[in-house]
Amino acid sequence: MNSQRHTTLTWTLITLIVFLLAACSSSPKPARTTPKPVPPAPTVETAKPKVDKPAQAVEETARQAREDQEAAQAAAAKDEATDKDAAALLEDAFTAYEEALAAIERQDMERALIKLDEAYGLLLKMSVPADSPLLQEKMDLRLLIAQRIQKISLSRTTLASSVNGSIPLIENQWVAREIKSFQTVERKAFEESYKRSGQYRDMILQELRREHLPEQLAWIPLIESAFRPRALSRARALGMWQFIRSTGYRYGLKQDKYVDERMDPVKATRAAIQYMIELHDMFGDWTTAIAAYNCGEAQVQRVIRAQKVDYFDSFWDIFANLPFETARHVPRFIATLLIVSDPRKYGFDLPTPDPPVQSDSIQVNAAVKLATLSQNLGLDAALLVSLNSELRHDSTPNYAYDLRVPAGYGEKCLACIATLPQYIPPDVVTDRHTVRSGDTLGAIANRYRTSVNALKRLNGLNSNIIRPGQVLRVPSRGGVESPAAAAPPAAKPGETVTHIVKNGESLFQIAKSYKTTVEKIKAANGLSSDILAVGQKLVIEAGKSS
Q1: What are the helix (H) ranges across 231-369?
Q2: Which of 137, 178, 215, 224 is catalytic?
Q3: Which of 322, 367, 407, 455 is exposed most, by the fewest CB atoms within 10 A?
């Protein structure tokens, strides 16, 4: 019994041990399904972006750059195609404009307007980028077309009458006052100006007709300058048409040491006409344009802008607000037109106008004093000066110049000029003087061997009043250095010396003072012309005394 019970207990223990062993051997299997090994996986996945992010950014940048480049190439191709189309349209527009000019030359204004409209229509079809070089050409041609259309329109409205035309001759109290002045205190000056006008009016009328402008404008110089080519105003306006320096430059009038084309009647007339055309285009009527010619377009525009009522912009609307001289200018012009159109009505017996001087033109390549040339030709010195009033020193310049001479004197002048010595015009050499207490213009003039008037002219002074501390320009040698003969050389006959050229000296003067010839000096120094520079050194062999 006991042995049987023992055996049963033994097998029970064995079964229990086997079960426990089986449980132990199978216990790791659930661990494989547990989430413990999962954390490394996210670590691997988060590491990958850290490695790939820069590469992706570079690839994205490169892709964007390729897209931008392709877009730029496409835009450039489009612009090039646009420019090609615009260039073709611009070329066609220029062709139409040139055809319009040819029609104007033939006086076929209808055809000219058709071609101008065609040219403008072609410009409207042009699509030009803001940075295209064609844009400026388009704008320039548009302006040219507009100007031509305005001129054609103007020519159709201003040729109605050679007396009145498009300038209204209003005889109001202001005009009557100027007529009274011409009839009394200014009578002699008016008649002299009228007589002098004959020298230039044919030329002025020819230029006005070429531009289809009112012929009454030919009388503007009578009130501007009394038809004097060298008239100089207090405002430094110069010439028959009274150009200030800046406006002269603006309209192509040359101004240098030798020449001031503001004093040339022909060239100044052409410049004045172009200026008046622009003023008429700007203001729309001749009376306002003439006022602007006198005081400048900016002054008139300021007065117009100051008007309380915008459309009160005609000359008589702004008359009272203009500068005094300008306010008188237009009434004086209208008074002149009324008197010359009917002298008897206003009590005038006008003299016969002077005839224009017939002249020829020759090209001169040397500086020659007109007085010397006139003397050698047996002419009145004033004649050559009047024909060449633009010459500042009454001498030709040291460069090629077209000199006007009396008709029939061309060959004689050329032959005479070849024998004359070169003329060197005077130079104004200035120093500076600071005014001290007790200084007067008279004392300063005496100190610098000049005159009070010369000092006032040099400094633009209207009176003799000066103040301490004021800086004045003063002539260093009496105002003007005249070409003087060289000082007697301290050289014996046959001795070779070095001469330093001084201001005002010429080869002829130097050769004379050294008792030698111009040709010998030029040969010894390798000179190809007679032109000298101040400070230039010349090797000279002194000649024998005669």
Answers
A1: 245-250, 265-283, 286-295, 297-305, 315-318, 324-341
A2: 224
A3: 407
* Structure token digits, residue 1: 């019994």
224 included as an active-site residue: yes
Question: Position 37: which residue type?
Answer: P
Q: What is the pLDDT of residues 386-407, one digit of tens each?
A: 999 999 989 998 888 999 999 9
Q: State how far the Cα of 438 lies from the Cα of 515, in Å rounded to an integer.
A: 50
User: Cα-flanking dihedrals φ and ψ of residue 395, to 5°?
Assistant: -145, 150
Give the pLDDT score at 360: 92
Residue by residue, what is the 3-state secondary structure of 207-226?
HHHHCCCCHHHHHHHHHHCC
The more confident residue out of 141 and 195 is 195
Question: What Cα–Cα distance (Å) separates residue 298 from each residue in 303, 317, 355, 388?
Answer: 9, 17, 38, 33
428 backbone dihedrals φ, ψ, rounded to 5°: -85, 115
What is the secondary structure of 381-433 as a DSSP string? HHHHHHHTTTBTTSB--SS-EEEEEETT-HHHHHHHHTTSPPP---B--EEEE
Integer angstrom CA distances of residue 542 from 70, 475, 505, 514: 83, 34, 17, 5
Neighbours of 322 (CB within 10 A): 21
Q: Are 534 and 501 in contact (CB under 8 A)?
A: yes
Q: Which residue would you say has higher pLDDT here, 535 or 455?
A: 455
Which tokens hold the place of 492?
């014996």
Residues forming beta bridges with residue 363, ordered by sequence position:
402
Asked if 511 and 521 touch (Cβ cutoff 8 Å), the reply is: yes
CB of 475 within 8 A of CB of 430? Answer: yes
Mean pLDDT for 491-502 is 79
| Tens of pLDDT, residues 259-304 | 999 999 999 999 999 999 999 888 888 998 999 998 888 888 888 8
The CA-based angle 279-233-235, given to 5 degrees, is: 70
